[in-house]
From TrEMBL:
This is YjbH domain-containing protein. The keyword Signal applies. Coiled coil: none annotated. It comes from Niveispirillum cyanobacteriorum. Keywords: Plasmid, Signal.
Amino acid sequence: MFRFGRTATAAIALLAMAAPVAAQENNPFLPWRPPETVNDFGGTGLIQTPVARAAPDGQAYAGFTYVWPYSRYFITVQGLPWLEATLRYTSVANRFYGPEDFSGFQSYKDRGIDVKVRLVEGNATWPNVAVGLRDIAGTGLFGSEYIVADQSLGDFDLSLGMGWGNMGTQNKFSNPLGLISKKFKTRPTGFTEGGGALSTDFFRGPVSLFGGVAWQTPLEGLRLKLEYDPNDYQSEPLDNDLKQSIPLNIGFDYKPWDWLQVGAALERGNRAMLRFATTTNFHKAKGPGKIDAPPPPLMPTAAAAAAAPSAAPAAAPDAPRSASAPADDVRTGLGRQAALDGLALQHFARMAGEIHITVAGTPARDSVAVSYDLARRAAELAPDFTGRIQVTRVEYNLPWMVTSFEADSLRRDAGLRVTSRAPVPAIYPVPPVTGQAPDETVRKELSAQLQKQGFFLSAVDYKAPKVTLFLGNGRYRQVPKAIGRAARTAAAVLPPEYQEIEIIFVDNGMEMLSATIFRVDLERALSPYGGSIEEAWMRTSIERPSAKAEDASHPEDVEYPGVGWNIRPALRQTLGRPESFILYQAWVRLNGTLVLAPGLNLAGGLGIDVSNNFDKMRIPSDSLLPRVRSDIKEYLQQGTTAMTYLQADYTREIGTDTYARVYGGYLEEMFGGMGSEVLYKPFGKEWAIGLDVAWAKQRDYDQWFKFRPYDVVTGHLTGYYHYEPLGVDANVKVGRYLAGDEGATFELSRTFDSGVTVGAFATFTNVSPEKFGEGRFDKGIYFIIPLDNLYVKSTRGSLGWLWRPLTRDGGQTLSARRPLIGQVNAADGAALRRNWNLLLD
């Protein structure tokens, strides 16, 4: 058996040293590689086994797999370029959940979480290598660990790995890690009753090899798969051993559309498998096109005409050159230029003395002229580049035309100038500055047009050639889009003497963000042969607001109280209970807000029952702690129609970068009370620190106006950190929780380019696992989906879904409405660059 282990180690090493002729991912002349397909457990893989290759960053899958007796429902997200996570429920058809008089004929349900970490990103000379943990935070019924490597050989993908636990029962041999410590030689048996605990018995016990091959057939979207299964199915959980005729699984995956994967296989030599999975990418999923009111047309002024490249003087040969825009900005500018001629930018690369541009498609005009304009655009976006610019046009994945240009020659011919932070100088006279504010007709038109665009105008300060608008953004989720809409509207309505437009966003009576943009930059960016949004970015000033609305020359006549309301369908549910797998309520949510003064609001909500099956809930709380959450059965059954909240709050800025909020009322469905919050968030920085303290009293089960006897003082000190390159947020919260326990909550989330947020948290307090009860500590996973991705009109709202394996009382916090960090982050300049390409949407 030890000889077999050495053979396995040698085989993995051989795979690692293989040097196949692999496709370079960035090569524009090779076919695009489709996203990875998922295996039976929901992770990227073959049929039962995983592979080391990672899906594209942000790729998400939701699907279903059936192979008797298991039905698996899963959600998988490539949360980071190297991290994959899966949430899964498994139904075991030939085992009951509980006694018939309690659970009926409901089959046994198991929940689990899988994690895979890519250790090495492969290339043409080195394989992908990954390590994974399966079923780590549930009952551990299918608990496994593995290490796997894979490599591509043309249209074939080969994988080879080693598995422990459930993946280590077929032709198993001694654990190589036993050479490090004897504890790795044996693996504890059994599983965690009730689930929720985090296993720590990783990589222990015997191991087995697994591996397989996937072939990308000539039929697009069709892959054939063959694998060696490391599970002999003679140690299945719940005493549910299964017959296996041969340890090979064979099947296929087919992708008829970009969003759907279908798979089928013969497993164990005697059972058919069927799989469906939908997939999307959270970076690319932008939602439907919008039917928002278009901004009023912007007519060019003489200054803009003077700044056009055709009229501008050529730069002197020895003129100092400014730095080039970042590569992403250059790529965006070239993509927009290519789109003007119906082409798609496939590839952009800048090397020491050359720029290579590759576009695909058939242009609507002369190809040489198209290539010339692309090269000229590249020279404009990279003013410090002095070498050769090569443009390649591709049709049917083959080079069709290759043209080359010298950057300096392009600048001399086109009269291009290097860019600077200052506005583009004009050689024609600019409109005269009168020093007087526009007449009342123009001011009313400005307010009306901004209202059509979804803005609330509270004040305007006219100091020609600069105008400052104080706006509330009620429509646009992406701040750059709001900046563009507001600035274009102001430029279109106001006289051309206002060449500098400052937008100050006001939220809850607080000036949060100042963006100053030049009118000439907007006009040039809107012209196909003028400037670009990248140039506008380089000259736009994003700062902490220094002006106040009350000091503006023309405050708007705002009437209080302001009233807002909405009504929408809603769904709340709990999954995986013994009484029924899905307990739900469909109801209608009615929400309203009264704005009594700047920063002072009164908000309330009603939930009206439409249909529910909460009457099936039968398990009462058995908690040894104060029942701050575990009495959920009583709240759901007695509060089917209820007042979900009724809260007053007052928010203001109390110092530079320091914000405060006081609040009180019926704060959420289970608690009322009063509290205060203070947040320090330096403008443009990626960190913040906040403190919140509240006195909370438990609400009655019917969730109207009465209270129960229990009350508590709760509060936390929270540190926030945002890592912008990946859109990752990390929070640590330390303090006292609703049950009086003390400890810390660790939270990690990521917001993708589409605005979708995926996060996880875990709370550890001074309550012992025995007193906490089933699950041992509080934890959960959540998704936040912008409604902007679902609606045909722009909106700032969102939908949230929180999954907790269990509802216990330890580590519970108040469900805060409109926390300060959310209000401040929505207008923070540090995150604007990512969405700046939406400036002209």
